[in-house]
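Lab notebook: predicted structure, single chain.

Context: the supervisor wants predicted structures on file for every construct in the current expression panel, including those that have not yet been purified. This is the next one on the list. No modifications to the sequence; it matches the entry in the shared construct table.
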Amino acid sequence: MDFLRQQLFNIIAFVFLGLFVAVWGSVLLRVGFWVPDGRTVAPPLNGALVTAAGVLATSLSSLTASALGFTIAEVRRDEETRRDLQPGDADTGVAVNAAEVTARLSGRIVAAVVVYMVMGLLVLVLWLFKGTASTDLIGAFALSLLGWLIGAAGVVFQTEKPLA
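Prediction complete. Output recorded below exactly as produced.
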Protein backbone atom coordinates (compact mmCIF):
# COMPACT_ATOMS: atom_id res chain seq x y z
CA MET A 1 0.00 0.00 0.00
CA ASP A 2 2.92 2.34 0.69
CA PHE A 3 4.15 1.81 -2.87
CA LEU A 4 0.80 2.94 -4.27
CA ARG A 5 0.79 5.92 -1.94
CA GLN A 6 4.31 6.94 -2.99
CA GLN A 7 3.63 6.43 -6.69
CA LEU A 8 0.08 7.80 -6.88
CA PHE A 9 0.96 10.82 -9.02
CA ASN A 10 3.03 8.66 -11.38
CA ILE A 11 0.17 6.18 -11.68
CA ILE A 12 -2.32 8.96 -12.49
CA ALA A 13 0.07 10.42 -15.07
CA PHE A 14 0.67 7.00 -16.63
CA VAL A 15 -3.07 6.27 -16.87
CA PHE A 16 -3.81 9.70 -18.36
CA LEU A 17 -0.99 9.51 -20.93
CA GLY A 18 -1.83 5.88 -21.71
CA LEU A 19 -5.46 6.80 -22.30
CA PHE A 20 -4.38 9.70 -24.53
CA VAL A 21 -2.17 7.39 -26.62
CA ALA A 22 -4.83 4.65 -26.79
CA VAL A 23 -7.65 6.99 -27.87
CA TRP A 24 -5.55 8.91 -30.40
CA GLY A 25 -3.90 5.69 -31.60
CA SER A 26 -7.38 4.34 -32.30
CA VAL A 27 -8.28 7.49 -34.25
CA LEU A 28 -5.02 7.30 -36.21
CA LEU A 29 -5.56 3.65 -37.09
CA ARG A 30 -9.18 4.16 -38.15
CA VAL A 31 -8.37 7.16 -40.33
CA GLY A 32 -5.02 5.85 -41.54
CA PHE A 33 -6.36 2.51 -42.80
CA TRP A 34 -9.67 3.85 -44.09
CA VAL A 35 -10.17 3.42 -47.81
CA PRO A 36 -12.64 5.78 -49.51
CA ASP A 37 -15.79 3.89 -50.39
CA GLY A 38 -17.48 6.48 -52.61
CA ARG A 39 -20.31 7.02 -50.12
CA THR A 40 -18.56 9.00 -47.40
CA VAL A 41 -15.85 11.64 -47.55
CA ALA A 42 -14.07 10.55 -44.36
CA PRO A 43 -14.21 7.53 -42.04
CA PRO A 44 -17.07 7.59 -39.55
CA LEU A 45 -16.00 7.94 -35.92
CA ASN A 46 -18.47 7.45 -33.10
CA GLY A 47 -19.34 10.42 -30.91
CA ALA A 48 -17.75 9.00 -27.77
CA LEU A 49 -14.40 8.56 -29.50
CA VAL A 50 -14.51 12.07 -30.96
CA THR A 51 -15.43 13.59 -27.60
CA ALA A 52 -12.80 11.62 -25.68
CA ALA A 53 -10.10 12.45 -28.22
CA GLY A 54 -10.97 16.14 -28.21
CA VAL A 55 -11.08 16.41 -24.42
CA LEU A 56 -7.82 14.52 -23.99
CA ALA A 57 -5.98 16.55 -26.64
CA THR A 58 -7.21 19.87 -25.28
CA SER A 59 -6.45 18.87 -21.69
CA LEU A 60 -2.94 17.65 -22.41
CA SER A 61 -2.17 20.72 -24.50
CA SER A 62 -3.36 23.04 -21.73
CA LEU A 63 -1.62 21.12 -18.97
CA THR A 64 1.75 21.05 -20.70
CA ALA A 65 1.59 24.67 -21.85
CA SER A 66 0.65 25.92 -18.38
CA ALA A 67 3.32 23.79 -16.68
CA LEU A 68 5.97 25.15 -19.04
CA GLY A 69 4.72 28.71 -18.63
CA PHE A 70 4.64 28.56 -14.83
CA THR A 71 8.11 27.02 -14.72
CA ILE A 72 9.52 29.72 -17.00
CA ALA A 73 7.91 32.43 -14.87
CA GLU A 74 9.34 30.84 -11.73
CA VAL A 75 12.85 30.74 -13.21
CA ARG A 76 12.52 34.34 -14.40
CA ARG A 77 11.32 35.46 -10.96
CA ASP A 78 14.22 33.70 -9.27
CA GLU A 79 16.64 35.32 -11.73
CA GLU A 80 15.19 38.75 -10.93
CA THR A 81 15.61 38.03 -7.22
CA ARG A 82 19.22 36.91 -7.70
CA ARG A 83 20.02 40.06 -9.65
CA ASP A 84 18.04 42.21 -7.19
CA LEU A 85 15.86 43.65 -9.95
CA GLN A 86 12.39 45.10 -9.66
CA PRO A 87 9.64 42.92 -11.16
CA GLY A 88 9.49 43.55 -14.89
CA ASP A 89 13.03 44.92 -15.20
CA ALA A 90 14.32 41.55 -16.39
CA ASP A 91 12.66 42.01 -19.80
CA THR A 92 15.45 44.36 -20.84
CA GLY A 93 17.60 41.55 -22.16
CA VAL A 94 17.84 38.93 -19.42
CA ALA A 95 17.40 35.55 -21.02
CA VAL A 96 15.66 32.64 -19.36
CA ASN A 97 18.09 29.88 -18.58
CA ALA A 98 16.67 26.98 -20.60
CA ALA A 99 18.72 24.40 -18.71
CA GLU A 100 17.29 25.64 -15.42
CA VAL A 101 13.74 25.48 -16.79
CA THR A 102 14.13 21.90 -17.99
CA ALA A 103 15.85 20.90 -14.74
CA ARG A 104 12.82 22.12 -12.76
CA LEU A 105 10.31 20.19 -14.87
CA SER A 106 9.17 16.92 -13.35
CA GLY A 107 9.58 13.70 -15.26
CA ARG A 108 5.80 13.57 -15.62
CA ILE A 109 5.73 16.94 -17.40
CA VAL A 110 8.60 15.97 -19.69
CA ALA A 111 6.80 12.71 -20.52
CA ALA A 112 3.56 14.59 -21.19
CA VAL A 113 5.29 17.06 -23.53
CA VAL A 114 7.00 14.24 -25.44
CA VAL A 115 3.80 12.17 -25.72
CA TYR A 116 1.80 15.20 -26.87
CA MET A 117 4.38 16.14 -29.50
CA VAL A 118 4.87 12.60 -30.83
CA MET A 119 1.15 11.85 -31.13
CA GLY A 120 0.50 15.34 -32.47
CA LEU A 121 3.17 14.98 -35.13
CA LEU A 122 1.73 11.61 -36.16
CA VAL A 123 -1.70 13.25 -36.45
CA LEU A 124 -0.22 16.15 -38.43
CA VAL A 125 1.52 13.78 -40.87
CA LEU A 126 -1.68 11.77 -41.29
CA TRP A 127 -3.67 14.96 -41.89
CA LEU A 128 -1.17 16.16 -44.50
CA PHE A 129 -1.11 12.82 -46.34
CA LYS A 130 -4.79 11.91 -46.08
CA GLY A 131 -5.97 15.41 -46.97
CA THR A 132 -9.70 15.57 -47.52
CA ALA A 133 -10.11 11.94 -46.47
CA SER A 134 -9.17 12.78 -42.88
CA THR A 135 -11.74 13.88 -40.34
CA ASP A 136 -12.34 17.33 -38.86
CA LEU A 137 -11.07 15.91 -35.57
CA ILE A 138 -7.70 15.14 -37.16
CA GLY A 139 -7.52 18.61 -38.69
CA ALA A 140 -8.45 20.31 -35.43
CA PHE A 141 -5.79 18.46 -33.45
CA ALA A 142 -3.17 19.05 -36.16
CA LEU A 143 -3.87 22.78 -36.13
CA SER A 144 -3.88 22.80 -32.32
CA LEU A 145 -0.48 21.09 -32.31
CA LEU A 146 0.87 23.65 -34.76
CA GLY A 147 -0.34 26.47 -32.50
CA TRP A 148 1.20 24.78 -29.46
CA LEU A 149 4.50 24.30 -31.30
CA ILE A 150 4.54 27.94 -32.43
CA GLY A 151 4.02 29.07 -28.83
CA ALA A 152 6.70 26.70 -27.56
CA ALA A 153 9.09 27.77 -30.31
CA GLY A 154 8.52 31.40 -29.35
CA VAL A 155 9.63 30.61 -25.82
CA VAL A 156 12.57 28.52 -27.02
CA PHE A 157 13.86 31.24 -29.31
CA GLN A 158 13.19 33.92 -26.70
CA THR A 159 15.57 32.13 -24.33
CA GLU A 160 18.33 32.69 -26.90
CA LYS A 161 18.47 36.47 -26.26
CA PRO A 162 21.97 37.61 -25.35
CA LEU A 163 22.41 38.71 -21.77
CA ALA A 164 22.59 42.49 -21.26
